[in-house]
Amino acid sequence: SLGREALAPQWDPPQVDTTRPHPARIYDYLLGGKDNFPADRAAAQVALRALPELRAMARANRAFLGRAVRFLARAGIDQFLDLGSGVPGPGHTAQVVRAVAPGARVVLVDYDPIVVAHSMALVDGGAGTGASASADGGSGVGRLAVVQADVRDPQELLDRVRVREVLDFRRPVAVLMVALLHFVAEDEDAPGIVARFVREVSAGSAVVISHATDGGQPERSQAARRGWDQAASRLVARSAGQIEGLFAGVEPVAPGVVPLPLWRPDGPVTDDVGMIWLNGGVGFKREA
Ligand code: SAM
User: Example GO biological process term (predicted)?
Assistant: First the structure.
């Protein structure tokens, strides 16, 4: 099986600075998780004071992730590249995929060493998650890999993913960028980053994106985003039009790029839609 030793060469030793807030751990705290530190909780409190709805937003985002992954698995996608995968708490990608498509392949990518360390537990043991990496005919290639990389350097990220040989890029892959791109600054070319991944994947592949808006309340949004000012990455809100623009190279499926609670809800929408300041959708790459 794919042990920690086998992965060590591609896995940077964790350089963990727990005194600085990190987006993954702030989000984990908002979701009620335990993988966070005092600096993360203090940052979250700054944000929550301005915007108590943030917890509901974090839950709505995780719920959207689950609906999008289930939708894609049912559409026949069996390879998932999860960029900015986050702490693997309840409803994370590997868990949702395993529940609907047990044979599917998943690569989790994050720049946060703590996320990588927690995600490695899924590879090593996977107890209770059903997400253990089973060896593939003795080749040493499993169905789940964890990669530490920064999405702002797509080429290096893709090189690190490809060397793991979990995903076959000749076949459709779902590229997830869920609550990720609002950590890419204005001058770091979020549309170009998405375009780079769309270029890399074959026709029939999909892109899943969710992204923060300012909810039409720029001042409250700015006050809340101060929570991320000292963090490893700051949080930028983009307009509905800018978020739609991230889907330039793909064709969004109905209902399009919308506030998350409105994207293919499982039942009656119980969220107050105006309270969830996140838009997103799922797009497919068509034949050239
Ligand atoms: N995608 C998960 C979800 O939606 O439930 C987690 C979202 S969490 C809000 C954002 C994640 O993106 C964090 O785990 C953070 O470490 C990661 N992240 C932020 N900037 C990143 C970057 N430049 N490269 C890779 N990961 C990044």
Answer: methylation
Q: Number of folded domains in the chain?
A: 1
Tokens 């005194």, located at residue: 19
Q: Which residue CA neighbors atom 13 of ligand 1 most closely?
A: 24
pLDDT digits (tens, 9 = 90+) for 29-45: 999 999 999 999 999 99
Residue 47: which of 184, 230, 211, 195 has the closest Cα? Answer: 230
Q: Tens digit of pLDDT for each residue in 193-246?
A: 999 999 999 999 999 999 999 999 999 999 999 999 999 999 999 999 999 999
Instruction: Provide the ipTM.
Output: 0.99
Give the residue, by CA position, lying nearest to ligand 1 atom 12.
84
The CA 288 to ligand 1 mean position distance, Å, reads 30
CATH number at residue 115: 3.40.50.150
Global pTM reads 0.91
